[in-house]
Write a structure and sequence with these properties.
Blueprint: H1 14-22, E1 25-26, H2 38-42, E2 43-44, H3 52-68, H4 72-85, E3 91-95, E4 102-106, H5 110-135, E5 142-146, H6 155-160, E6 164-166, H7 171-175, E7 186-190, H8 192-197, E8 214-218, E9 225-229, H9 248-256, H10 259-270, H11 273-280, E10 287-292, H12 295-301, E11 307-311, H13 312-321, H14 327-330, H15 333-338, E12 342-346, E13 349-356, E14 359-367, E15 374-382, H16 384-393, E16 395-398
Parallel strand pairs: 1-2, 11-15
Antiparallel strand pairs: 3-4, 5-6, 5-7, 8-9, 10-11, 12-13, 12-16, 13-14, 14-15
């Protein structure tokens, strides 16, 4: 699709867009399909940018551009020299982290920079827009899909123009804009009174173009096959800014990454806006990826993968039992999981222990019966005496016993 002029109407408070963008975690990625679905909504990523430091600089520069209303040319003049200095420019031969083989890739270029800038500005705008609409949903419960009706509008998006649904209709969960790269669609809202005065009727489900229809799409990176909703590009079937359920794809990618990098990425997630929202309101049924566990722990709990999740139920229970722990303490979990000093099998409970800044920290982990999902079931400070008791009753799976 040809390039389109930037058309973002900040009829929402720009700060809402800035807050969403600044709260994203970091997810280094070698390929656009490595970071999938809802993870895009909460993680900042640039395909083929594996350098966490450069990724952070790029994120900060875009947040600054959003805050100060900079144009693409202004932003490009600032970020391009940094990318060139870091070696992220032009065509390069790299080692594919998934296959271990060399391949030539296109890194930075004027066209890539424009796509990065425009897509991230659109994502931030739509996340801020969604938050504003949800805040007004009790007074203006009807949401209307609006397309930019010109010769660059996708036919499917044109077909959705004017659709009117309640804010809590399930269609919005997967189809709140953007619905594709550089999608310019947006959503407006209205009260029930205004809807009736204008003689507008809600769109019946059987008249929603493509509702329930999907197409098969194969991820070129790993061969996984996904059902992509009608009218969307792969990976856009999520609501921007939704409280995140960090996916298994991120867990697998972190497991394949160098240990230190995986830990840094997980820590960035638990220090971001998504976890702050989760911490302040631990919703039952909602989960967040807390980190990855080493193989001895996977074997002990019968896990089939490395990702360990923290559920809303567990977080609330842990906050009730350990009110002394603040949000910042939970950011220690990724390091505790990935690089424990001790892993102990204490009866049916598997615990990981880490001594940090003179204090011992402990977390219990378990897998579901099928081994498909791993969970952190408790987390707290502890004393060496408690660990000694567990050592007496249990078995050391990893690490050496030394206070």
């Amino acid at each position: 699709m040809p390039a389109e002029p930037m058309d973002i109407r900040f009829d929402v408070d720009p700060q809402e867009a800035i807050d969403h963008f600044g709260g994203k975690g970091l997810a280094p990625s070698d390929h656009y399909s490595d970071v999938w679905g809802e993870q895009h909504a909460k993680d900042f990523t640039v395909a083929k940018m594996l350098d966490l430091d450069l990724l952070k600089k790029t994120q900060d520069s875009l947040e600054d551009a959003l805050r100060e209303g900079k144009t693409f040319d202004d932003w490009r003049k600032e970020i391009e020299p940094q990318m060139r200095k870091a070696g992220w420019w032009g065509k390069k031969e790299i080692i594919d982290p998934k296959t271990g083989k060399k391949r030539t890739v296109q890194l930075g270029s004027p066209r890539r920079l424009e796509l990065i800038f425009r897509q991230n500005m659109l994502d931030a705008y739509n996340a801020g827009r969604r938050q504003r609409l949800q805040d007004m949903a009790d007074r203006r419960p009807w949401w209307r899909y609006e397309s930019v009706l010109d010769d660059r509008t996708r036919p499917q998006h044109r077909a959705w123009d004017g659709m009117l649904l309640r804010h809590d209709h399930p269609w919005w969960k997967t189809h709140f804009p953007p619905n594709a790269y550089l999608c310019r669609c947006t959503v407006s809202s209205m009260s029930d009174g205004k809807r009736q005065r204008r003689g507008l009727a809600p769109t019946p489900d059987d008249q929603i173009p493509g509702y329930g229809e999907t197409r098969k799409w194969t991820n070129p990176r790993n061969g996984e096959v996904f059902d992509v909703p009608w009218g969307q590009d792969p990976g856009f079937d999520h609501m921007p800014g939704d409280p995140a359920r960090m996916g298994d794809s991120l867990a697998a990618k972190m497991a394949a990454a160098p240990q230190g990098l995986a830990k840094e990425v997980a820590e960035s997630l638990l220090k971001g806006e998504a976890f702050q929202e989760f911490y302040n309101n631990p919703v039952p049924g909602v989960e967040m990826l807390a980190g990855v566990v080493p193989e001895p722990v996977q074997e002990a709990i019968g896990a089939q993968g490395p990702g360990a999740f923290l559920s809303g139920d567990t977080l609330q229970k842990n906050k009730d039992h350990h009110p002394e722990l603040g949000m910042g303490d939970y950011a220690r979990i990724p390091e505790l999981l990935s690089t424990p000093d001790l892993v102990i099998q204490d009866g049916e409970q598997t615990v990981v222990c880490l001594k940090k800044d003179g204090e011992w920290w402990l977390a219990a982990v378990k897998a579901t019966k099928t081994g498909q999902r791993n969970y952190v079931t408790s987390f707290r400070r502890t004393r060496w005496a408690d660990i000694q008791r567990r050592l007496t009753n249990g078995e050391v799976l990893l690490g050496e016993v030394a206070e």
